[in-house]
Amino acid sequence: MTPNISAPAGRSARKTVVGRVVSDKMDKTIVVQVERLVQEPRVGKYVRRFSKCYAHDEKEEAGPGDRVELMETRPLSKQKRWRLVRVVAKSPEAKA
User: Fold this and answer.
1) Cα-flanking dihedrals φ and ψ of residue 95, to 5°?
2) What is the pLDDT of residue 48?
3) Which pLDDT does position 12 carry in this prediction?
4) Is the per-residue pLDDT at 88 higher than 70?
5) What sign for the dihedral angle of Cα 59, 25, 92, 55?
6) Where is 49: in which H helix or E strand?
7) In the structure, what pLDDT confidence band is assigned to residue 2 with cuts at 50, 70 and 90?
8) For residues 74 and 57, is the Cβ–Cβ distance under 8 A?
9) How many CA atoms lie within 13 Å of 45's alpha carbon, on the beta-carbon side?
10) Distance between CA atoms of residues 13 and 6, nearest Å
11) 25-73 confidence digits (pLDDT tens)
12) Does the domain spanning 4-95 belong to CATH 2.40.50.140?
């Protein structure tokens, strides 16, 4: 996924990405897998590449399998550089 650049009033533009929650076992932290398509140089075929982002989830509202939107923020810890904006879609397993 390509980052979406948006600028809220009074702030500089910040990157936003959408991904799937892999883990929520830490306190107020979620691990999100972000997928992007990259063109393979020799053949020209598009391949999926994945990145893991550590994000701050203040209200602990996201669970494993949920689709979430993240926004870039200042460094919150050694690895956390993102924060949860909203839960786009809940996981089907979470409803059961």
Assistant:
1) -75, -30
2) 97
3) 74
4) yes
5) positive
6) strand 46-56
7) low
8) no
9) 3
10) 5
11) 999 999 999 999 999 999 999 999 999 999 999 999 999 999 999 999 9
12) yes
Residue carrying the six token digits 């830490």? 26
Distances (CA, A) of 69 to 42, 77, 86, 87: 33, 20, 6, 6
Residue found by looking up tokens 């200042």 in the block:
74
Contact 53, 23 (CB under 8 A): no
What is the tens place of the pLDDT at every residue in 3-19? 676 666 676 789 999 99
Q: Do the strands 4-6 and 29-39 form a parallel or antiparallel pair, or are they unpaired?
A: unpaired
What residues pair up with 89 in beta bridges, in sequence order? 67
Residue type, 8: P
- Per-residue burial over 67-87, b if 16 or more Cβ lie within 10 Å, else e, is bbbbbbeeeeeeebbbbbbeb
Helix or strand or coil: residue 42? coil
